[in-house]
């Protein structure tokens, strides 16, 4: 059933505006605490007025983000808001005494925040403005230790770049996962979920603009016979050819989806009833020589007012087309020609280890940034420090260690002990940074930036179970340095550490939300929306992993393929809604009757598969062994026989092959042999509603 999918999340523009406003609120929040505790300091009236103005501006931007987005003035408002935050932070830094004052770190904090909250194309001008403002504070404010402004600019600039880079990588990963979750892996068309969402969007747009929309449904003729005659691989190739042909037959701004086994749908935007008939005629002629189809269409608003009404009317016309034509199985020559001409597209790839690899590499880059920028500071500005040589050696080693982690990130990301390796690396780096800060003079020295600057990136790029201990270690180290080595003032320590933790908290929240979205999209990309079982992509990934485990440990696995007999009659006689209900019942029945650890998937149409884990070997007496593959297959077929007949094929890892394609081919051959031998397989399909 085509059901509109409501979209309730804020748009990307609203989220971007609110993120910019949040930075505008973060600065007055941190500054307000400091001003409340130092009421007797100079310039307090001007500083309080600045903080109040920034708070009001940020609050108004956050609350009015939706209205600003609708007014098409989002970009100017966002840039003006960022400029106001930068100017306000610079003014506070100058009034407080310069870059080495407690509020002198506001601009570096803003730079890191903007890196994770601003799109890359907008970050460059904002970063340039922040850098100019920081050096204005450095040149016009109070005196700072030698090299203080340089090392802070370089250190926080590199950290901001790494945060921006990591945030962009996460955005790319989510975008590709979103694409994968809406695309049918076999045909490259939209899957049912993606097509439903597109239909809901286009109907909403049509309602707002008054433009027509036409839904076209196409059901390939006698596709079941194609699978039975030429095999499921030939059937898959024919589906892929049909999907590509339909996509080529409509405009680029139209949409094509595979919404069932051999059922396709096309959405023709700005197309009414008359124009749609010409498109249907063209599609029928294009498909006809290789994959003839029964086609029906319905148009909004002339013939239907909702997605459900469009679906029902178009489905009725598909059935009328079926009964009015003589449907034939494509010839072997036509199928072979289509398979030969098929050009398989490249699916957007999303590695399961991609985020782990990015996070590991970024931790290495953090070590390089902190180590080698600190080394430059030590060599240029610490010539009068008798401990310069020791500082330089430690910082050089930190940079080398970071480079090793970055270069081996791919290998480390495969390790089951990655968490332990990264904890050890993180604690080692913080121990080295703490030693350097102690040698440089304490918590208010220029080198203290190396201990604090990396905390936001750690929070953004690493899981919470790794980030929290590392951030706690860095915070305790900084407090220990302030207590036992020295600091310019308690407020300097509080503002530096408090501001860093505030930005790290925001970065950690960004990383957590990105992780939740990634996990949701990963699940959606691997689950069949109709039956809630694994789809082709998800099942093949799970089966491939099981094969790898079986090859190394010898754990037995088997593959079962189920093909429903007479399913096409259900769709033709009772409609696709009845067929969908039967497929859901079959999926539920299989999931209920398989053993713990077994996996059920739907490859498409009425074809289901089961990954059988820990099966016993088939043998002459296997019919008495409930975990033998053939015995399990017979048991599941008996369970299905309450409503539908099914043919079953089995394949055992090691005995019939060692990969999914080989095992699938063997099981498919066995299933086809069973069909041709006309073995009894149970009752014909029924359409009564089950209880589950």
TrEMBL record:
Pfam families: GGDEF. Keywords: Membrane, Transmembrane, Transmembrane helix. The chain crosses the membrane at residues 19-37, 43-63, 75-93, 99-116, 123-141, 147-164, 363-383, 389-409, 470-491, 543-562. Residues 211-340, 555-691 form the GGDEF domain. InterPro entries: Diguanylate_Cyclase, GGDEF_dom, Nucleotide_cyclase, Rev_trsase/Diguanyl_cyclase. It comes from the Bacteria. GO terms for molecular function: diguanylate cyclase activity. The keyword Membrane applies. The keyword Metal-binding does not apply. This is GGDEF domain-containing protein. It comes from Couchioplanes caeruleus subsp. caeruleus. The lineage of its organism: Bacteria, Bacillati, Actinomycetota, Actinomycetes, Micromonosporales.
């Amino acid at each position: 059933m085509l059901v509109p999918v409501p979209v309730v999340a804020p748009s990307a523009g609203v989220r971007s505006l609110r993120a910019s406003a949040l930075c505008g609120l973060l600065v007055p929040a941190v500054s307000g605490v400091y001003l409340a505790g130092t009421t007797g300091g100079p310039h307090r009236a001007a500083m309080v007025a600045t903080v109040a103005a920034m708070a009001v501006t940020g609050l108004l931007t956050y609350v009015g983000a939706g209205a600003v987005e609708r007014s098409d003035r989002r970009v100017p408002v966002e840039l003006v808001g960022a400029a106001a935050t930068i100017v306000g932070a610079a003014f506070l830094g100058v009034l407080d005494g310069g870059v080495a004052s407690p509020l002198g770190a506001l601009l570096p904090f803003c730079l890191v925040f903007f890196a994770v909250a601003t799109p890359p194309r907008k970050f460059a001008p904002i970063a340039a403005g922040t850098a100019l403002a920081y050096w204005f504070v450095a040149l016009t404010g109070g005196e700072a230790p030698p090299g203080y402004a340089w090392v802070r600019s370089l250190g926080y600039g590199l950290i901001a770049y790494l945060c921006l880079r990591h945030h962009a990588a996460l955005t790319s990963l989510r975008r590709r996962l979103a694409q994968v979750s809406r695309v049918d892996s076999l045909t490259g068309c939209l899957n049912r979920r993606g097509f439903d969402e597109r239909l809901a969007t286009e109907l909403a747009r049509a309602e707002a603009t008054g433009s027509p929309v036409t839904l076209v449904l196409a059901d390939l003729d006698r596709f079941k016979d194609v699978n039975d005659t030429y095999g499921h691989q030939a059937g898959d190739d024919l589906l892929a050819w049909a999907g590509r042909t339909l996509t080529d037959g409509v405009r680029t701004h139209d949409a094509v989806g595979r919404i069932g086994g051999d059922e396709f749908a096309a959405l023709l935007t700005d197309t009414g009833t008359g124009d749609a008939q010409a498109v249907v005629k063209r599609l029928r002629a294009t498909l006809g020589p290789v994959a003839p189809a029964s086609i029906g269409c319905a148009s909004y608003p002339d013939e239907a007012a909702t997605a459900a009404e469009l679906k029902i009317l178009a489905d009725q016309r598909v059935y009328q087309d079926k009964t009015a034509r003589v449907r034939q199985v494509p010839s072997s020559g036509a199928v072979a020609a289509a398979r030969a001409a098929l050009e398989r597209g490249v699916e957007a790839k999303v590695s399961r280890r991609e985020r782990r690899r990015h996070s590991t590499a970024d931790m290495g880059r953090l070590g390089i940034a902190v180590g080698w920028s600190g080394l430059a500071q030590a060599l240029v500005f610490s010539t009068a420090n008798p401990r310069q040589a020791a500082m330089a050696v430690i910082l050089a080693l930190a940079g080398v260690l970071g480079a090793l982690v970055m270069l081996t990130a791919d290998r480390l990301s495969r390790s089951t002990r990655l968490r332990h390796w990264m904890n050890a690396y993180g604690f080692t780096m913080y121990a080295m940074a703490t030693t350097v800060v102690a040698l440089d003079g304490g918590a208010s020295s220029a080198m203290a930036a190396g201990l604090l600057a990396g905390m936001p990136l750690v929070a953004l790029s690493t899981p919470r179970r790794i980030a929290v201990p590392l951030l706690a270690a860095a915070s305790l180290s900084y407090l220990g340095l302030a207590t036992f080595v020295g600091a310019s003032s308690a407020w300097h320590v509080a503002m530096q550490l408090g501001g860093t933790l505030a930005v790290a908290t925001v970065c950690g929240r960004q990383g957590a939300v990105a992780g939740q979205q990634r996990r949701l999209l990963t699940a959606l990309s691997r689950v069949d929306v109709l039956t809630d079982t694994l789809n082709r992509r998800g099942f093949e990934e799970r089966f491939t992993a099981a094969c790898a485990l079986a090859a190394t440990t010898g754990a037995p696995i088997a593959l079962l393929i189920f093909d429903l007999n007479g399913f096409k009659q259900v769709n033709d006689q009772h409609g696709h809604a009845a067929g969908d209900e039967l497929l859901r019942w079959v999926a539920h029945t299989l999931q209920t009757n398989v053993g713990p650890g077994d996996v059920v998937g739907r490859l498409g149409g009425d074809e289901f598969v089961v990954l059988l884990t820990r099966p016993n070997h088939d043998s002459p007496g296997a019919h008495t062994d409930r975990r033998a593959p053939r015995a399990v297959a017979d048991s599941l077929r008996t369970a299905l026989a309450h409503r539908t007949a099914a043919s079953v094929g089995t394949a055992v890892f090691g005995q019939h092959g060692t990969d999914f394609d080989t095992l699938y081919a063997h099981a498919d051959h066995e299933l086809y042999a069973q069909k041709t031998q006309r073995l009894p397989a149970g009752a014909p399909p029924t359409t009564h509603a089950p209880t589950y």
